[in-house]
Amino acid sequence: MKDYVRLEVRRTLRDPGFVIGGIGMPVLMYLLFTNLGADDGGWRTGAMVGMAAYGAVGSALNTGGGVAEDRAIGWLRQLRVTPMSSREVVVGRALTGSVTVVPAIVAVLAAGGLFNGVRLAAWQWAAVALLLWLGSFPFTLLGLGNGYRLTGPATGVANMLCNLGLSVVGGLWFPVVLFPGWLRAVSSYTPTNRFAELGRSVAQGHAPAAGAVVVLTAWLLVFGSYAVLSYRRVGTAV
Fold first, then answer.
1. What separation, in Å, do the N-terminal and C-terminal C-alpha atoms of the chain show?
2. Which pTM was predicted?
3. I need a labelling partner for 78 at 20 to 30 A (CA). Which of 60, 129, 175, 206 fits?
4. 193 closest CA partner among 23, 62, 2, 50
């Protein structure tokens, strides 16, 4: 399975669309949003975590696009005649997604430290990166579920809508305090809101709240079940 994961990671990182959309766009948006208006160090730090989370979500969902392409060219059918089990194929894809989110996270954090003057302790930088990496797994599973269930074009549209919708409502682009009361209540139950909360809590010097872990874990189970059911469905068709 190591060779399979290595192959998929190389395929993803060589994709110009991934480099531009998954890494370049979050960095550009972060630098743009935080250099308009007053110089607010707290906003720059919070926005840094939010945009790193946005980049991670987009990269994680992008894993599903690769799955849809594999279905179209018959790659999944070829995998089924290899010694790899179905579980290894799904886990391998999930591991691919977990690796490809790292460049997006690191790029935005680097932009915050190098260009926006964000200052954190060494352990905070490491903890923020680690928590965002771990917290991205639910979105990888969501992308896999879309890829196994939908066609290539439909997967691209679904992932784009999921990314934009969850990012905006989850407060990755704008502070949740600017939302009306009812939308703030909805936002607190979204996986993206709690995902970013993991990193923002550490950046503020304290551990993430238990509620964030519980909500994100619940979404992990939901998206994991969706991915499994989608894979079983496509398994009966190839």
1. 21
2. 0.89
3. 60
4. 50
